[in-house]
Fold:
Amino acid sequence: MISAGPLMFANRARIASLAQKHRLVSMYTQQDFADAGGLMAYGTAAAEGWQRAATFVDKILKGARPGDLPVEQPTKFELVINLKTSKALGVTLPPSLLRRADRVIQ
Structure:
């Protein structure tokens, strides 16, 4: 599994391309990597994270002390599968996995 930092994220298309070129089955932590050609991604739902962050900012702007706010863990995770990459790699994914995916890229 490849975890994305700023440098990795900026080069996600190149990383996915190199993984395909060398026939490496790869899984990423952000769906943008699957969009860029990676086989699959499983990680937190970005939209939910931004919404939760906005709630925290709202509370702080209304006077809450940041140190008094609870630490929260993500509650929603997304699985994205890129079938085009799967076919290019010659990898057959089980139908049960495809049914569980939140999004399948054709």
In short: The mean pLDDT is 90. The beta strands are 27-28, 40-44, 77-82, 103-105. The first strand starts at residue 27 and ends at 28. The longest helix spans residues 46-61.
